[in-house]
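Hi team,

Filling in the usual template for the complex we talked about on Friday. All components are listed, including any nucleic acid strands or ligand strings, so the model treats them as one assembly.

SUBMITTER: L.P.
PURPOSE: interface mapping
COMPONENTS: two
RESIDUES: 484
SEQUENCES:
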Amino acid sequence: MKSIRMSIVIALLSGWAFAAMAAEPGHIKLQTLGFQEKVTAQKDGSNKTEIVPVGRVLPGTEVIWNVNYEIIGKQPVTDAVITDPVPAHMVYVPGSASGENAEITFSVDGGKSFDLPEKLQVQGADGKLRDALPKDYTTVRWVIKGTLKPGAKGTVTFHATLQ
Amino acid sequence: MRRLVSVLLTALVAYAQGAGAATDAPAGSVITNTASVQYLVATTAQTQSTFANITVQQLVNVTVTWQNSADVSVTPGASNQALLFKVTNTGNGQDSFKLTDVVVTPSGSSFNPASCLIYFDTAGTGAYAAGDVLYTAGSNDPRLPQNGSVNMLIVCNIPSGAADASLGEMQLTATSKTASGTFGTVNAGGGVGGVDAVVGQTGGTANATGIYQVHQIALAYTKSATVSAPGGGSQPISGATITYTLTVTPSGSATANSLVVTDPVPTHTTFVPNSLTLNGSAVAPATGDYNVTTPGAVTVKLGNLAGTASAQVIKFQVQIN
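RESULT (copied from the run log):
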């Protein structure tokens, strides 16, 4: 009984730690940042596009989600897999996922299974399977190839539009 | 300021091409992106996660639609005639709307609806009914949640001089009290929960026009008699037969419902059995009779007679006693 209770406490603590102090205990420093394109009209009539951090977002905005990672431990890391669920009320922008040295797959079932876009299918309103649309994507996954040495860092990214 | 508007417009244009309103992110809500990484250090599996938040701003939009399926049929001098409208908050956050009504003059034969007021369709009849609450601007402006709608009535009197088939039009306008004006205009902090409210592609205002049409019917009624005396004369003597011809001529764009013609048979005469005809044909008992529906009189039920129908000709004969 005591051990069960202890486990729960540990689970709660670790959950809290992941959320609030994500970088501290592990070997990888992980950071999620949102950006958006800002187009500003110049005096000469041209438009200047820059990438700015998002905070407050209007429906219709395409948000660029970056996940930065850095190996901060002293040991090499292997089999690193980054997963990022497409946030609520957001729709994945087709073709927007990228990441160096990463094999990118998607899930349409909440992260239970992943596959390449052309192989994903979902059950349509008529009960029959149909090819998945970007709006069906629930999760993006990057499988980082090879070994990440201490100090290695990288960024994976995808875009999603706020509905 | 100009730069900000450009950014917003980019977002707004994208929004206009986006999915349906039903799943729009509610204004003021916080959307969290939680990424995680699983990995091995030597053979030990580890997991970490991190998150970032965005707060959804309020996009202000509204639609107004006229709900009557066809022009609302009215008669001259009628009071409290209603046009039904639906006001829908198509923005992504709760909003209140100011309503105004104005007469629109259509081309062609028209009239101006008079003494118009805006009511909530509280009773839910789609027409003016007891229990409908009067709208007063600034006092009970409808407050609608995201995707919420309310049915409103414009209730007018129809001038007594309105001509048959003429049109009267009223426009209902709903304007957001949160933000309205040029597409992209920002009301900083004015949205739900203190987020910015931004005018959407509707400009935060919308209107729709409802139409009344006067439908009247006039019935011209004539009666003539021809006498046929025994031996060929036309003197109204005892034994002579009088053939009465009653003509009902409708005109106008309305329909007279349940029209019944009744004509008493004159004293000192006797109805000639089976002499009653309508438009040249014998009349079935359900349509017309003598002395059954109305004692001592001929009765013909013309039913629903459209103003565009041809003249109805009723004939019957009596014999002078």
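MY TAKE: Residues 121 and 127 of chain A are 12 Å apart (CA to CA). Chain A is about 10% helix and 45% strand.

Thanks, L.
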